[in-house]
Structure formats: structure tokens, C-alpha cells
Amino acid sequence: MKLNKIIQLCVLTVCILLTSCLGDLDLQPIDPDVTTSRSAYNSPEAYKQGLAKLYASFILTGQQGPAGNSDITTSDEGNSSFLRQMWNMEELTTDEAVWSYPNDFGGTIFNLHYHSWLPTDGIGAFAYARIMNSVVLANEYIRATAGSSDPDLQLYNTEARFIRALSYFYGLNLFGKMPFVTEANLPGAFLPEEIIRTDLFEYIESELLAIQDEMGEPKFEYGRADKAACSMLLAKLYLNAEVYLGAGNERYTQAITELNKVITGPYSLAPNYLNNFLADNNTSPELIFSFNSDGRYSQSYSAVWTIIKGNAGNGGFSGLRTTSALVGKFAPTDPRAHFLKEDVGQSLEIEAVNNTKQGYGVNKFRNVTSTGQIPDDGTDFIDTDYPLFRLGDAYLMYAEAVLRGGTGGDINTAVGYINQLRNRSGDPAIGNITSGQLTLDFILDERARELYWEGHRRTDLIRFGQFTGDTYLWPWKGGVSEGIASEPFRSLFPIPADDRALNPNLTQNAGYPGGN
């Protein structure tokens, strides 16, 4: 059986294996027109090609780049990539990013700004489908490599389990509950059962703990998940445990344990903040795990392409800007503030969401190298990798976990980590902080200053109790220019209506039509 599309999870198809450029994972694709699951894994190279397809599922959209023969059913394949949907849902729902064009996703994309999304909105359906696409691909690969005595295949199997856990983590974070399938569910037509949020948390945690010691050593191969990536994902799971499991179920000590493993590893801050977001950011000593791009060999319209090509004020298609709420968090001398302002025709305030000249552009991500060279690949695509996990984030997470009462760390070390971030460029203008200044409110704002547009903001605001309600307002929250409160149930996205129509085992999240 050939795989052209994973149309719905209830029909588990056979996995066809393709490749993308992921450093050493850059191999020729297996031809999807002639390859079946029985013949796919007929050589060591084929197994690595299969692993590359799993990593590529976060960036690429189908079997032809930049768009063609999509892995999911979609009317707009280029707009449907896993990373682009995760970025949209984490950033466009917050004070950090605004989209210009109201007709996208069937005219529903502004619902993200307004906190008015519905189960019928396309963006949620695309994200849900991409998560399950990655899960299904990983399941097939895990099944194909299970029980091997070959050390390489054992490692590949472990990485596939990490990729599945990461995919389910996004489901946990965005939707709370998901259809649940593993390699034990053989291909065939069936309706998966739903796994609730607490059980999904425990499953992800148990998987990561089970594979952690079997993964590659930190930095063993760029673009592949290793022990440090596993620790970072565990730390994020633990830092947000009270969101996922309920108040009183804190895991801050466990978060510090995992973060200490990362911080004492072979990573260091990039001497220049921007080096983490340029076309040669694969050379940054700070990146722990990234989703990789190559303008020649792995072309897509994923999040990084959109961020760079769609940024207002830089000659692109002006799809993205930011709000005055984010800009106002930076001191005038903060070297991390990379905004395109009035000198290129952008105003600070946004009076109309669809006015591309209102709102500063953000030129933090760039398709140029640290030496100023533009990649010579002869395409309109980009070479900049997406830094999913980096050391700067680990420092901030450590400080927060200490402040929230976790043991295994201390406040003086936390202050030192924060000051390293603030002074990495050698510019003392923004200054050191003291232990008395290190508060949770400071951490939330410092995370915005350090990590803006890296896909963390919604999760951060939820953890700090500032995503919904009126504790924190920003422009166009709730659908008005000054911002108004949104409903508490908006901390979770709705289960897509079409998925529920096809699978009666799926229940709706509270607050949405059909929810309880």
C-alpha cells in the first residue's frame, strides 16, 4: 500500500519514507511511486532516510518541495506545515505578533488575535492533523525498527520515540487531549480512543524517561535529537506541570534536575544574540535542538520562511508585525530589540489589524550569515534553522523554577545566568540585575525580551496566568484595539469539528460548542 496522504487518523496507512536535508541525514528520497512498506527498509541507508522523514515532518508539508503531494488533506499546503501552525498558535494569539491578511484560513486567522477561534477554524484543524501525521509516521518507523540488534537502528528507534513524544507534547499543550495511537496499533481502519490531558502528560514523561539514557550524547550530530534535547523537553513538561495537571501538581525540582544536565553540557551562549537566528546558525554554540532548513534541498513555506519573507518593513510581503506591548518591554539600549520602525515606514500603534504599515516589523530572523553573506542557493527559500531549544531558554527556565520553589538550584546562580544573557554582547547598557530584582514578573518580561518570535509566548502567558482574563491586556486581544478580557477556556484550543464528526470517541474541550 502506498502513502499519498494521511487523510484521517482513523485510517492508518503505510508509511512511505522520504528525506530532507538535515545535515548528515541528507540522502536521496525513496520513490513514493514504487516503494511499499515491505520494501522500504532494505538497506541501512533506507532506515536513515526514514528517520529523516520523521524530522522533516515538522518542516516540510509533503512529498515534493516546497509544496506538492501533501501529507494531509488541505486546500493550502504551503500554509499548513507543522511548525508554521505551532508558531501561529503560540505567537498570533499573544502580544508578540500580528498577521496582516484576513482571508487566510477561510477568513478565520484574525480569530487568533481576537481570541474568538472556533472548532470549525482551519488553523486548528491543520495543526491537529500535522501533530497526528507526525505521530503516525513515527509509529510506523518505531514498529519497523523494534527489536533490532543493530546499534544504529536502536538509536534511530529511540529518536523516533522522541519525535512522537514531542508531537504529542504539542497536542498536550495546544489541545489538551488527543487521539492515542502507538506502534501497537497496527495499520488498518479503526477509531482511536481519546487520551485525556493528565494521562497524556504521564505517557510523554514515561517515554522520555525511558529513552533518555539511550539517546545520543549532546551534539553528536547537528539536527538530531540527543540527551540534551530530551532533557529540555522534560524540563518544559515539568515547568508547565501545574497547567497540564492542575494546581498543586508542581514539578519544579524535576525541571531543575533536567536543566542542570543541559547547562553543564557542551553548550555556551553565542557571543552575539543574532547569531542564533541567521543563515549559519548551525554554527551557534547555543542551539540544543533545531528544525533545519536548506534553501536548495528542503524548501518549504514553513514558519522561518514566513517570518523572514513576510516581515513588514523589509521588502517582503508584509504579513507579520508586532504590537506596542512587546516593543515597550525593551529598554532603548537593549541590543536584543530588532525592530523595523518609522524610518522604514512602520508606525508603532495598530489601528487596523490588516494595515501592513501599522506595527513595527521584527528583523530578528534573517537569511544572511554571521559574516554578512547571502546564501547562494539560487532560490527564494531560506537556510536559517529554527532554534526549538537553546541555552538561553534553559537559563530562563532554571531561574523561574528556582523562584517557584524548586530545589537543586539557587537564586545566586539564577541571577548569574540572567546577567549572562543580558550582557552577552559585552554592552553594559541594559545592566545587571540583583537577586532582589529577580521576580516572576521580571522573568515573564525577560522571556519576552530574549525569546520573542521563537514560539513560546502563549505557553508562557498561560503559565503566568496572563493569557486570558483582564490581568494583562494587549492591542487587539478580545477583538478591540485597546484589548479586553477573553474567556478562561481559551487556554485550550477546540478539537476540530471534522475530526469529532468522523470519530465519536473524541470529546470537545469545555467552553466550545459541544464541550462540557
Automatic annotation (TrEMBL):
GO terms for cellular component: cell outer membrane. This is RagB/SusD family nutrient uptake outer membrane protein. It is found in: Cell outer membrane. Residues 1-23 form the signal peptide. Its main location: membrane. SUPFAM superfamilies: TPR-like. InterPro entries: SusD_RagB_dom (IPR012944), TPR-like_helical_dom_sf (IPR011990). The keyword RNA-binding does not apply. Belongs to the SusD family. Residues 353-512 form the RagB/SusD domain. Keywords: Cell outer membrane, Membrane, Signal.
